[in-house]
Design brief:
Blueprint: H1 4-14, H2 18-28, H3 31-38, H4 45-55, E1 57-59, E2 74-76, E3 79-81, E4 85-87, H5 93-96, H6 100-111, E5 115-118, H7 125-128, E6 136-140, H8 146-159, E7 163-167, H9 177-182, H10 192-199, H11 202-211, H12 246-255, E8 260-265, H13 268-276, E9 281-284, H14 298-308, E10 313-315, H15 322-330, E11 335-338, H16 340-349, H17 353-372, E12 383-385
Parallel strand pairs: 4-11, 5-6, 6-7, 7-8, 8-9, 9-10, 10-11
Antiparallel strand pairs: 1-12, 2-3
Helix pairs in contact: 2-16, 15-17, 16-17
């Protein structure tokens, strides 16, 4: 039987980077699921801008610092975290890989990092309650009905979620043309075309056969199955959802007893106004290019928002490794989230995937910090623009 060390070495040999996990995941999950996970919207220009803008950010190496072990710990909203990254919410997470929400919650608990459950995940807050660690975040897509709102908050709180995340950059369903072409609907309906794709992915198919086809379990208490008139990129949650305004944020701030984050911020003026409403942190994000194809890269707006506020800033969109995490931290972020990456890891390696991705990111951070001569993340050098 191979030792744990030899198994880790084998994973490192075959999957030394997130891109390797992505490549293998594409071969192990059905095409219609892959198109949902991997796609943006429009011609995916915003997604490409995220990558291109990150690649333009340089950090100057520094030498002759002797031997040292970099400290990867950060402080966020009063919590000391061992790593500067966490798990972002992904809708229909359990469609990407069987039991994804529980697997990710357990991995986050073991790592001591935040795990964020989406309102439109395939497991409810109650389903994952026993798997949550100390840093459990609940992401809300805003229900219109106040009674439903209160019930969702109560369920999340009772399940053990301490931090609330309100996503504000999905006022309407985006088009996501690749997803539409794939034939995926919400909830998923397995047409002969999709069943043929499932048959080619036995590990995914077996897991789904054991657990049943996933759906948005939290919404069962509030909806009926009738959603035939919705766009294929929407789902039953849109029957409940509203586009929030400033009064909605005030209401949530008063209703939630705990840290409150607003996700989807790209404008300085929105950040400064939210600060006056008592939010605890901003989440700078363009939804990884999935909502609007004319948006700037998230990293491009981060420095100006950092200059305008003293509140913690969480960042996502386009992150593919430890160097990108350092680029975001040097540009003003206090913490970095990944969404797709964790699901690439699950698709590639199943239950082993999240721990291996955390290992990849951790080792990449250490390597880059060694090149920069930086012992602590708070001492990262200033950025400059690469040609």
């Amino acid at each position: 039987m191979p030792s744990r060390h030899s198994a880790e070495m084998d994973l490192n040999t075959h999957f030394p980077a997130l891109s390797d996990l992505r490549s293998r995941a594409q071969k192990r999950i059905p095409k219609f699921v892959w198109e949902y996970l991997d796609s943006g919207t429009g011609v995916e220009a915003t997604r490409r801008r995220n990558r291109a803008a990150l690649d333009k950010i340089g950090l100057m190496p520094s030498v002759l610092h002797g031997e040292f072990e970099p400290d990867l710990g950060v402080s966020l909203m009063g919590a000391d975290l061992p790593l500067p990254f966490g798990i972002a919410p992904v809708g229909m997470s359990g469609l990407m890989w069987p039991d994804a929400e529980r697997l990710l919650a357990r991995a986050a608990a073991k790592l001591g990092i935040p795990y964020t459950l989406s309102t439109v995940a395939t497991q409810s807050p109650e389903d994952v309650a026993d798997d949550l660690g100390a840093h459990a975040w609940f992401q809300m897509y805003p229900p219109r009905d106040e009674d439903i709102r209160r019930d969702m908050l109560d369920r999340a709180h009772k399940a053990g979620f301490k931090t609330l995340v309100l996503t504000v950059d999905v006022p309407v369903a985006s088009r996501r043309e690749r997803q539409t072409r794939s034939g995926l609907t919400n909830p998923p309906r397995l047409t002969p075309r999709l069943l043929a794709q499932v048959a080619m992915r036995p590990a995914w198919a077996l897991g789904m056969a054991q657990r049943g086809m996933p759906h948005m379990r939290m919404l069962d208490a509030y909806t009926t199955p009738a959603a035939e008139n919705l766009p294929v990129t929407a789902h039953v949650g849109y029957l409940l959802r509203t586009s929030p305004d400033w009064d909605y944020v005030k209401w949530l701030r008063d209703a939630w007893d705990g840290p409150f984050i607003v996700k989807g911020i790209l404008r300085v003026e929105d950040a400064t106004k939210l600060e006056t409403l008592g939010v605890d942190a901003f989440w700078v994000s363009n939804h990884a290019g999935r909502q609007f194809d004319g948006a700037p890269a998230s990293i491009e707006v981060l420095p100006d928002i950092r200059s305008a506020t003293s509140l913690p800033i969480i960042f996502d969109s386009g992150v593919e490794g430890g160097l990108d995490i350092l680029r975001a931290l040097s540009s003003g972020a206090d913490f970095v989230m990944l969404g797709r990456g964790w699901h690439y890891a699950l698709g590639a390696l199943g239950a082993e995937g999240p721990a291996h991705l955390a290992h990849i990111l951790r080792e990449d951070l250490k390597s880059c910090m060694g090149q920069l001569g930086t012992r602590m993340l708070r001492d990262l050098p200033e950025t400059f623009t690469l040609d």
